[in-house]
Fold this sequence. Notes:
alpha/beta, eight-stranded mixed β-sheet, 2 domains, Rossmann fold, binds (2S)-3,4-dihydro-2H-pyrrole-2-carboxylic acid, ProC C-terminal domain-like fold, binds NADPH dihydro-nicotinamide-adenine-dinucleotide phosphate, amino-acid biosynthesis, 8 strands
Amino acid sequence: MEQRIGLIGLGNMGNAILQGILGSNVVPGTQIYVYDTHPEKGEDLNKSDGVNNLASARDVARESDIVFVAVKPNVIVDVLNDIQKELKKNTIVVSIAAGVTIKTIAKSIGYEQKIIRVMPNTPALVNAAMCSITPNTEVTDEELKIVQELLNCIGETEVVPEYLIDAVIGASGSSPAFVFMFIEALADGAVKGGLSRKQAYKFAAQAVMGSAKLLLETGKHPGELKDMVCSPAGTTIEGVHALEEKGFRAAIIDAVEATIKKSKSMAEN
Ligand SMILES: NC(=O)C1=CN([C@@H]2O[C@H](COP(=O)(O)OP(=O)(O)OC[C@H]3O[C@@H](n4cnc5c(N)ncnc54)[C@H](OP(=O)(O)O)[C@@H]3O)[C@@H](O)[C@H]2O)C=CC1
Ligand SMILES: O=C(O)[C@@H]1CCC=N1
């Protein structure tokens, strides 16, 4: 890929995106420009991969054709205001911030700027992210494909309209936290049953990963796959009953709904 890639913010997500791009060799480190308020993060990347560690977000914006802004939602508007003058007409600005709308972004950098909102998740760190992509009307199909190609370095992508990003946050942006709670609880139960902590995490995590893989690869309905595990008068149906009694599904739906509500309220402010 010939585009120069910028990254502002090298935290959990910025770093995951960067590592994915570097690992795939789609863009060499020397064609990547980064800035974080902690310069040592970029310094390490400079030494290991030749990534250009620049002195300011403005410098990154000036050098880049596609610039990922990976800072927290409460600072992104300041960053966008800061870089606005350095953006070229064709620079694509990619925001991964939760609850920050394309309209808010455009207000800072101009309504004619090319803007893409992406909602990734932390499995990006192991190239297993799920990312939603939402371009504004200035982005061409070809440009969208280029950004998709970059994001495919960290996982899978789906294009969604902006009003559905809140639901994506519930289902995949935030849900890794819920899944980790589930894995932790599974392991606690197994430890209670006598398994070592280390083995309990391995059994639980592998079961979650394998189940997700089975669903994705077979395309079967999750209910059908659940039924395949429940032998008549067997062990699993006892556990299913216990979960239903405790309102397991309702608790998950409530968690996703609470996430969506928060995301929408952030967008309104
Ligand atoms: N974490 C997640 O699971 C997901 C996060 N997101 C979104 O990704 C974005 C980043 O989140 P995450 O990576 O977790 O956050 P982090 O806090 O881990 O990373 C942000 C990084 O940017 C630095 N930073 C702060 N201000 C600036 C600035 N002005 N210029 C350059 N760098 C700056 C931070 O430094 P310091 O620590 O000093 O503030 C930190 O190193 C958020 O908007 C979030 O909504 C989206 C999907 C999933
Ligand atoms: O909690 C958050 O705000 C971010 C957005 C999606 C996941 N984490």
